[in-house]
Amino acid sequence: MTDLVPTIKNKLHGKVAIVTGGASGIGEVTARNFIDHGARAVVIADVQDQKGQSVAASIGPDRCTYIHCDVTDEDQVKSLVESTVSMYGRLDIMFSNAGIATLSSQLAIDLDISAFDKLFAVNARGMAASVKHAARAMKEGGVKGSIICTASVFASRGYATGGTDYTMSKHAVLGLVRAASLQLAGYGIRVNCVSPGMVGTPLICEKLGAPKEVVLKMVEKFSKLEGTLTEKHVADAVSFLASDESEFVTGLDLIVDGGFVVP
C-alpha cells in the first residue's frame, strides 16, 4: 500500500492551474490541494485582493501567484489566462469556481430582475468566459487540459420555496459543461463540473448571518452520510477531475453532497 503514496501525492505533478474564486472557501482549499498533489504552480484569481494575496503568500511565491480578476469582465478573464501562460508556459487546469450565492425566498413569480442579472453575470457569463479563454489557451498550446466548473446540487433539481435565480444560474453551468465537453473533446480537453451540497463556507456563513459552528450543524441535515460535508471533500473531487486519473471522463456532473440528491 505504501508504494501507492508517491503516485497519489503527485497526481498533478508538473501541472499549472488557475482557480477562480480562490481567495476563500472551496477555491482556497482546492488551490492548496492542487499544490499538495504536486502541481507546479497555481494562480489564484479573485476580487478579494487582501485575502487572495494572503493565501498565495502562505502557499509560497514560488508555487502560487495571486491575480485580481472580476470574472464578469471578459477582458480581465482573458488577461488572467494570458498572464498565467506567460508566467508558467502553459495552462493544464482551469477550476472555474468563482460564484455568488443567494439564499433568497424569491419565487419565479416575483423575481428581482436586477439581482437576477448580477447573479447571472458571475455564475453563468463569468463561467462561460473562463471556459472560453482557458480552452483557447489549451488548444493553442497543444495541452490536453482539464476544465472544471463549480455548479451545485441545484443544477439538477428545483427549490420549492425560492432561490429561482440561483437555481437557474447553476442549471446554466451544467448546460455549458455538457456543450463544451462535446465541442472540445476533439482537442483532448475535458470539461466537467462538480456540484457541491451545502458547505459551511465563509460566503454561506455571511449570507446566513451565523457563525460557522451553527452553519455546520445545519449542513449536517443535508447529508445522508454520517458527518459533515466540507470544502476538502469538494476539493478532492475537483483534484480527481483535474488529474489524469479521470483522463476518459468528460461532460460529468460530479455531485458531492453525501446523498442529499440522488439523480
From TrEMBL:
Matching SUPFAM superfamilies: NAD(P)-binding Rossmann-fold domains
Domain of life per record: Eukaryota
One Pfam family, short name: adh_short_C2
PROSITE patterns given in the database record: ADH_SHORT
Family designation: Belongs to the short-chain dehydrogenases/reductases (SDR) family.
Descriptive protein name: Uncharacterized protein
Originating species: Rhamnella rubrinervis
